[in-house]
Specification:
Blueprint lengths: L1 H17 L3 H12 L4 H7 L9 H37 L18 H15 L3 E2 L5 E3 H4 L24 E3 L4 H10 L4 E10 L11 E11 L4 H16 L5 E8 L2 E10 L16 E10 L1 H6 L8 E8 H9 L12 H4 L3
Parallel strand pairs: 1-4
Antiparallel strand pairs: 2-3, 4-5, 5-9, 6-7, 7-8, 8-9
Helix pairs in contact: 1-2, 1-4, 2-4, 5-10
Amino acid sequence: MKDRLQKIRNEAIAQIKAAGGMDALNDIRVSFLGKKGELTAIMKSMRDIPPEERPAFGQMVNEARQEIENSLDTMKKDLAAKARELQLKSEVIDVTLPAKKNHLGHRHPNSIAQEEVERIFTGMGYEVVEGPEIEFDYYNFEALNIPANHPAKDEQDTFYITKDLLLRTQTSGTQIHTMETQPLPIRMIAPGRVFRADELDATHSPNFHQIEGLVVDKNVTFADLKGTLAEFAKQLFGEDTKVKFRPHHFPFTEPSAEMDVTCFKCGGKGCRMCKGEGWIEILGCGMVHPHVFEMCGIDPEEYQGFAFGVGLERIAMLKYEIDDMHHLYENDIRFLKQF
């Protein structure tokens, strides 16, 4: 029995020294010290030993167990140290290499232009109001004095969802919602995405952005409109910017006008940017039509107002000299990093 015990001890220690990894060590532990291990089996055979020899034999078994466990722990530490050393060698860092560059996102030119426009008008006391992109035909057309037979309501020009619901073609509907629900006076701008069935080219897209403004108060005149938009143009394009108003027609304003600004590239002398004219068309505007007020429950004899609308992409393209609107939608980081 003693010879068998010595043989088990020697065999266990030899296998431990030859083990090549943690899994092999675990198998050795189970093989010799587990419930069905060889050392456990020899303990069960103690009943065959004379009683007077059992204490001495039990001590020998415990010493063998302790020696095997110590050998297992020592080998486990050696294997862990070797594994760590290999890991450090494989993951060595060359401190002379340049650090990895952290690429941050960049604001879109449209966002930059919108924030600047909002800053200008909020500085004048205007409120920024958002409205739904899916709008009722009434708010997009009828309440803006655009009758049912108007060409703009043709399905070739407008994305209809149902007979009464559509993708808004302008943010003017937000103005109607505001006039119906908010107390007077009103000073607001309504930025947002709009949709029209336009053909794709360098200056048109079926999906673009507008910023429309509205003022409703007592004793508002066209002079207030001109003064407001002149100040807006100066803050946006520079203090030397001049404005020019040309008569135009919009169903929801009367009188109506389109506003030009002196070319901020050549100062009005004529260049490629302004096509030699010295002026650039920037927005449409006018005094709110009395019928629009009446449909919103506002007395046109007591209140007057003006409205204006500008394309956000147009501002960005002019301000940053972008020659194709579609550059704004392609998400090319090389293009966006310029702004």
